[in-house]
Amino acid sequence: MSQTTSAVPQARAESAEPAEGGAVPVAVPPANAADAEERTRDRVLSAVLEHGPISAAELGELLGFTPAAVRRHLDHLSRHGVIEVKRASRAGAGAGRPARRYVLSSQGQSTLGNDYLDIASSALRRLGEMAGAEAVREFAVERFAEMERRYAPEIEQAGTDITARARVLSEALSRDGFVASAQSIEAKAPLPAALSSVQLCQGHCPIQQLATQFPVFCDVETELFSRLVGVDVRRLSTLARGGHVCTTHIPTGRPAAVGAPSPADPGNPNEVSNHLQERP
Question: Do 63 and 43 meet the contact criterion of CB atoms below 8 Å apart?
Fold first, then answer.
């Protein structure tokens, strides 16, 4: 994977004045060491690609490297722009400094090859041309249906408290690599309690580039969140539209909706989306 990393500069052979006996000491280029360093760095990059978002400690455990070795390679990859840091609070953790977790950057994705993105984009464009925008929407609905089937039972166990449901949703999203967090915002007097909310943030999106071209993926995901937590939610920002994170506003000052659409009934597909998706 020489495109994404650069070899450690090899030491140049240097001549010196002949010593007694006529021998000329020559520095041997550490080619083997440089190759080994690059192979190790490629292993780190591959692990970030496969398991990201992932912390330095988790990488060390996964690859059997010391913390110092892992951080040296992560720093190198970060400097070259092929990985980036996503900061997010750990699910279930209290207040504190957000954890540093690593994911492949857009540059890293492009360097590794984006044939899959080109194929997916071309297929969706062709689908839209042949069957219309509604067919693309139906494809997005089908993609998120499996997620909804997995998440719904967990969220139902949280009861009717919207904040609890939002936190369970955040934990489920984090397990799937979205680097999610849920922060409660309590409205204080003179503001009415009905303005209290939870800000659900996602620091990583595995389909960010597709969603940039087809915003319907963001719309369908937002509708999914609304059904799962049981109240109408608003998308405040998305990675696909230039935000640093995807942020969903979940109001907690009113009771959960009764009879929310089931996963098999995602609502009227012809409804105009009222989800706000603006650059923060």
Answer: yes
